[in-house]
Amino acid sequence: MKSRIVMVCLSFALVFSIAYAATTIWSTSVSVIVTSPLDTVKVYSDAACTQEVTSIDFGNLQQASSSTREIWIKNEGTGTVTIFWVSTLSTVSGGKISDFMKYGTPPNEYYWTTTGTTIAPGIVAPRTYGINIAVDCPTQSFSWTISLEVR
Amino acid sequence: MAERKVFLAFLVIMLVFNVTVYALIINTISCTVKVIEKKILSAPQNLQASSFPSAVYLSWNPPSDADGSSIQEYRIYRGISAGMEAFMDSVDGSTLEFTDRTVSSDDLYYYYATAVNSAGESPASNEAKCSSTESIKGIESVIRLNEAKTSGFDPFSIQQNLRIYGLSNTYWAQNIIVVWPLTSKMSGAFEIYDQSQGSLPPPLNKIVFWQFTISIPSSSLKDSVTLRSSIDSGHLVMENDFTKYVWDRLLSSDYHLDISSPEIVVAGNPVKPSVTFEYPTNGYVDTYVRIGISPGTWLHGSNTVIRPPAHASTTENSAGMQWNANGLFQYSAGWTDQGLSFGADYEKAIASPPSVPSPSYVPNPPNAISVFLHCPANLSLFDSQGNHLGYNLTTGVIDQQIPDSLCLFSEDIQTIRILNPSGDYTLLVVGTGEGFFGLEVQWQNQTGVITTIWNSTGTISKDDVTSYTISAATVPQVTLIPEFPQSFLLLLLVMTLLLVGIVYRRKHPFDSHTRRPES
Q1: For position B400, what pLDDT does the model report?
Q2: Quick one: pLDDT at residue B447?
Q3: pTM for this predicted structure
Q4: Residue at B243 is within a domain
Q5: Residue A65's Cα: distance from chain center in Å?
């Protein structure tokens, strides 16, 4: 009888220990990617939104140079969303390459920084994505990702 | 459906394991770049120079290795001989053209371009040479109001004919800008009918022409319009403004100027012409009517501010007006607006010189007539042939066109002397200010005896005109017929009646028959 009671106690302790450990481990992993079913904001390379963009190749760029690409972000869902953009470029380049997102035309040109951009359903937001390469940037290839997020 | 189950399962897991989601990534783009060593660019490619009126147009292609490289600017070099180019100007790195507007016609110029990046300036491009074509000599614009307009209240249209001189090539005109109104007193709008609407206008040749019509609604009362014509050939832009006053067109048909009821009396009395000016009944204009006896000198005139449609005509009646020696009468009418005058001066013979009354007999023919004037006035005399002696009201100089005459003018006295006079003379005294008036006429007979045949005193005012006729006909006689003021004649009549009454009373004193019986 005593051994059964001990077994039950050990079993409960094991279960709770595993549960506690798992909960503790997972709760520290906060970078969770959810791509579906909310994948309703798409990026295109043309104003008519016919060519979807999944990658951008800036080709060969010299040190101390810059380059830009035009993109169009369209909300193809049914609800208004406020999106933010995040890039890993600064991390992968050690700060030698910076990137930016801007919109408008001079003299009414603005940079899309840390504030969100609210896009109504069906609306297209044109943006210019660009990079600036420092003069002392290592001569090598770099790969990075830019993400559009809903927070 | 399967996605929804997966999503719900994920939510359960998140709840069980206390997962915190702080961002939902909805799209990702992967990017790549290869950073290469900084170096200067190769030269711009295919530099070409094209001729334009008063300009040379340059275009080029980017350097072959510019792909992925940031071009800061392109630099343009120019010279008047090959290999002697010097820096002239620069454009930003995204521009692949340049227009040199500082060229002289028909001069040959040499050009090359370089590309500049952060590493420095590229080698020179190929050399291109070109001379500008003939210059645009100007733009001529004729603005015309439509013919159907009859009054200022009617809708009207303006047609502009535009000619561009100096173009031998073909250019496209693109922008026609109508600026309306610069000086309007009321708001309004245009309708623009452009023949080229919807497509580019016809090409412009050496003498180019096209037309369009601007229709102005009737509710818009405008005193002027300005059309701005802009010629944009793609590389050259020329603009020109043309201002036209609406009433200008009305000059030819909508006003009427006439002399009405000129009162012509025999010599010694003035003619009294009046000028009636029927002006447009619409418009914010200042009208005037002037009359005079010599070109450019207006003895009487009026200026009236017209506010339509209150007035239809204005009349200037000059009681003191007389004809000049030629029987000609000057008149002028028109209007002024925005500092511009519209109208014209006219000269018209309204009457023949009046006939000379039968002269009185003079025993001895004179061999000289002298006229002396003491007053703030100008003395002027015309003979029957129109020759003038004295102060010329138009030119401001003293004429001495009559043979054997003498003219002596000083500040105090003006003297005219005619030797061997014959025929009729018209004497004019034109007041130049306020003051006392003294005129004396003398004649000298063949024996040298000088006799004052007439003198007159009084006051005179500025622009007062008094005319006299002196007749020295072929018979030995001199007749002087002065103009007597009506007040003088009235005074003379009163004095005469008073004198007659005194004489009568002296001859017929009061007697007992006329007295009331004593009580």
Answers
A1: 79
A2: 59
A3: 0.33
A4: yes
A5: 25
Q: Identify the three-state secondary structure at position B247.
A: helix
CB A118 within 8 A of CB A82: yes
Answer for the pair B457, B438: CB distance below 8 angstroms, yes or no. yes
Nearest residue on chain A to B34, alpha-carbon basis: A141
Its domain, for residue B219, covers: 138-249
Total domains present in chain B: 4
B317 has pLDDT over 90: no
User: Is the domain of A12 the same as that of A75?
Assistant: no
The domain that contains A131 carries what CATH number?
Answer: 2.60.40
Q: What's the DSSP call for residue B202?
A: P
B175: nearest Cα among B241, B98, B99, B228: B228
Q: Are strands B24-36 and B297-306 parallel, antiparallel or unpaired?
A: unpaired
Q: Does A66 touch chain B (CB under 8 A)?
A: yes
Q: Chain A partners of B35 at a C-beta cutoff of 8 Å?
A: 60-63, 97, 133, 137-142
Task: Please report how the helices A2-28 and B2-17 are oriented relative to each other, as an axis angle in degrees rounded to 10.
Answer: 110
Query: Among A64, A144, A146, A80, which Cα is nearest to A112's?
Result: A146
Asked if B119 has any chain A CB less than 8 Å from its own CB, the reply is yes
| Lowest mean pLDDT segment, chosen from A78-92, B4-18, B190-204 | B190-204
Q: Which of B28, B31, B72, B117 should be substituted to probe chain A, the one whose Cβ sees the most A Cβ atoms within 10 Å?
A: B31
Check CB contact of B26 with chain A, cutoff 8 Å.
yes
More confident residue, B264 or B134: B134
Q: Which two tokens stand for residue A126?
A: 């044109």
Q: What is the pLDDT of residues B17-76, one digit of tens each?
A: 454 545 677 788 999 999 888 888 899 999 998 776 567 888 999 998 876 557 889 999
